[in-house]
């Protein structure tokens, strides 16, 4: 059994509106350091919105969010939060005009004030970790989707975040590239990094997730171990959803 530490993310009664639309309806979630939590649920259920509130890409309207002891509110603490929370998107979001190496060194040099030498050394170690050190001097457009996503993971890790958020990181990939990205994510999970991952990849969830959290209509409907959730879902909406994806 992995040991889990203190609370690193606490969300209490989080609500979010887009105009009239009530996208998050009182979400409660606590994540401890070292935990790997998989978030699943139908399209439009608020999964992306929720994880985006955790680094304030989306401000919430009410309720409380505390990340690494810092409460998210107003515009304050934004830098402190973004430093501690790494994010990987479905669409990679690399800077197209920068080399792979430069994509990874940019934030640590700017935000953490690392020297170029230190930032590049760390970037190369991370490229080794994600299995593509030979791509360091290429530009994103010269890489496959799976390679670009691995660069995006290395870039997020370069800031040494306390938490990594992944929003459907393999959904935009061709099937043969999904495994190479999931393998990297499994290695991170096993190394003890705290991760929140929106994904419908059941194999990943079964292998490394401590918990699966099922979202529907802006709230958490069911929460269980992967074993419990996939084999014995309790709620009608979870059962229906699983019957559609499996
Ligand atoms: P999921 O990631 O589970 O598919 P999202 O969190 O992206 O769902 O979206 C939840 C709901 O909020 C959807 O109905 C979506 O259309 C709506 N929504 C998300 N972002 C915005 C936005 N910026 N403006 C208006 N509506 C939005
Ligand atoms: Mg989404």
Automatic annotation (TrEMBL):
Keywords: ATP-binding, Nucleotide-binding, Transport. It comes from the Bacteria. GO terms for molecular function: ABC-type amino acid transporter activity; ATP binding; ATP hydrolysis activity. InterPro entries: AAA+_ATPase, ABC_ATPase_HisP-typ, ABC_transporter-like_ATP-bd, ABC_transporter-like_CS, MetN_ABC_transporter-like, P-loop_NTPase. The keyword Transmembrane helix does not apply. Belongs to the ABC transporter superfamily. This is ABC-type polar amino acid transport system, ATPase component. It comes from Deinococcus peraridilitoris (strain DSM 19664 / LMG 22246 / CIP 109416 / KR-200).
């Amino acid at each position: 059994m992995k040991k889990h530490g203190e609370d690193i993310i606490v969300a209490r009664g989080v609500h979010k509106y887009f105009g009239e639309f009530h996208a998050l309806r009182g979400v409660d979630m606590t994540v401890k350091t070292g935990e790997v939590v998989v978030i699943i649920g139908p399209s439009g259920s608020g999964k992306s919105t929720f994880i985006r509130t955790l680094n304030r890409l989306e401000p919430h309207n009410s309720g409380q969010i505390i990340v690494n002891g810092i409460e998210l509110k107003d515009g304050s603490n934004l830098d402190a939060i973004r430093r501690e929370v790494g994010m990987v998107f479905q669409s990679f979001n690399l800077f197209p005009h920068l080399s792979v190496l430069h994509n990874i060194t940019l934030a640590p040099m700017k935000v953490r004030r690392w020297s170029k030498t230190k930032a590049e050394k760390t970037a190369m170690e991370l490229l080794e970790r994600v299995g593509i050190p030979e791509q360091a001097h290429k530009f994103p457009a010269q890489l496959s989707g799976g390679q670009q996503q691995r660069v995006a993971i290395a870039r997020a890790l370069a800031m040494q975040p306390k938490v990594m958020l992944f929003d459907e990181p393999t959904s935009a990939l061709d099937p043969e590239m999904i495994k190479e990205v999931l393998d990297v994510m499994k290695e991170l999970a096993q190394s003890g990094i705290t991760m929140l991952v929106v994904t419908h990849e059941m194999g990943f969830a079964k292998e490394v997730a401590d918990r699966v959290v099922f979202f529907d209509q802006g709230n958490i409907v069911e929460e269980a171990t992967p074993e419990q959730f996939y084999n014995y879902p309790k709620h009608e909406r979870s059962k229906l959803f699983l019957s559609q994806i499996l």
